[in-house]
Design goal:
single chain; 163 residues; mainly alpha; 5 helices; 2 strands; 42% helix; flat
Amino acid sequence: MRFKTHHEAVRKCVLLYVGDHDPAGLLISDVIKSNLMDCANVKGVDFDPSPIRVERIGLTREQIDDLGLPWIENLETGSGKDLGDPGHPDHRKPYVQNYIASQGRRKVEANALVRDLRGSRALVEAAINRYIPASWPAEHEARLAPHRQAARDAFAALIAVRS
């Protein structure tokens, strides 16, 4: 018996993403989708990523303020160079300049969410419930409960790794 794909069964496939609030982190959800689309061209692989929706659920400026997350007063990248430094090769790129103009030369790392587990769990629960509502007809609930729990477990694993 062949199972229907999510697309064939008219189900949504959504990848929820939480990333750093910094110039590059705010662009990553677009990069994820682009990388998935590149996989569609792999020879011998029957994969159509076009129906996959990548949704950035955090970090936003509002979440940072609401959860009282700490700002880091630099734009240092993983390579140890500071995007706020005019000598950085990417400093003048529009995405960096737009970020500096709106947020300053500071950032918040996604792992700051471990400071407020209740708030960060609420963030993830709200996103899950947008796609897997808490109250579905009883006949669907048994099928959906494991998916809802898997999303919670994935978040718990992420928090364990980050802390």
